[in-house]
Amino acid sequence: MDDEKSSIFSYMHDIMLWQRRSVMFDEIHEECGVFGAYRVDNAASITYYGLHSLQHRGQEASGIAVSDGENITLQKGKGLTVDVFQKEKLDSMVGRLAVGHVRYSTAGGQENENIQPIVSKGHNGSLAIVHNGQIVNEKELRIELENEGAIFQGTSDSEIILHLIQKQKGTLKERVMKTANRIEGAFSFLVMNEDTIYAVRDRHGLRPLSYAKSKDGYVISSETCAFEVMGIYESVDLKPGEIVEFHKGIVKHEFYSTDTDHHMCAMEYIYFARPDSVVEGINVHAFRKATGSILAREDKDLKADIVIGVPDSSLSAAIGYAEEAGIPFETGLVKNRYVGRTFIQPTQAMRDRSVRLKLSPVSSVVKGKSIVMIDDSIVRGTTSRRIVQLLKDAGATQVHVRIASPVITSPCFYGVDTSTKDQLIGARMSVEELREYICADSLRFMTEEEMKEATHGVGLCLACFNGEYCTKLFSYQEELDK
Ligand code: AMP
Ligand code: SF4
Question: The whole model's pTM is what?
Answer without folding.
Answer: 0.91
